[in-house]
Write a structure and sequence with these properties.
The protein is mainly α. It has helices at residues 2-36, 44-58, 60-65, 81-116, 128-150. It contains 5 helices and no strands. The radius of gyration is 19 Å and the shape is elongated.
């Protein structure tokens, strides 16, 4: 199960990186077109917004796997090892709860965008497929957090 979570997390992170590269390329083409040729890239802003959402959500699982969330360990390093493990477990449980809520709300939003028939303004692309992809990426983060919670040796600082 740990190997599956790790493979899934790294695969999603690769997609996240590809989305960021696409954002960079779109911005580059848009800026060059706007300032050198007085002809900006149509719908660049829409596509960048959607890609940034994907990049963010597809990075959730790897961040959870590496326990890369913000933590302040000024006092916890002085605590005995069992207390540190307990605090790591509480941190993992809190992260799991957070991603459960994010996943749930994203699935709700995806259903709402589907039922409302929301499209982008310029290109007219439906938004719901992107929001469903973001929901699935958040679900992968939930699975990764659950694996970490059940198997603390899956990686990260407490390994």
């Amino acid at each position: 199960m740990q190997r599956l979570a790790r493979t899934l997390s790294y695969g999603l992170a690769a997609v996240s990186g590809a989305a960021l590269i696409a954002v960079m390329a779109l911005m580059f083409v848009d800026v060059i077109g706007r300032y050198l040729f007085n002809n900006p890239l149509t719908a660049a802003v829409e596509l960048i917004e959607l890609l940034m959402g994907l990049a963010l959500c597809f990075g959730f699982a790897l961040t959870a796997l590496r326990r890369g969330h913000i933590r302040v360990d000024l006092v916890t390093q002085l605590a005995p090892r069992p207390v540190q493990r307990l605090l790591d477990w509480v941190s993992d449980a809190t992260t799991l709860a957070f991603f459960v809520v994010v996943c749930w709300k994203l699935f709700q939003k995806a259903g709402q965008t589907f039922s409302d028939g929301i499209f982008t303004q310029i290109v007219g692309m439906p938004v719901f497929p992107v929001v469903y992809l973001m929901s699935l990426a958040a679900a992968a983060a939930v699975v990764t957090c659950a694996v970490l919670l059940l198997k603390p040796s899956a990686g990260g600082p407490s390994a």
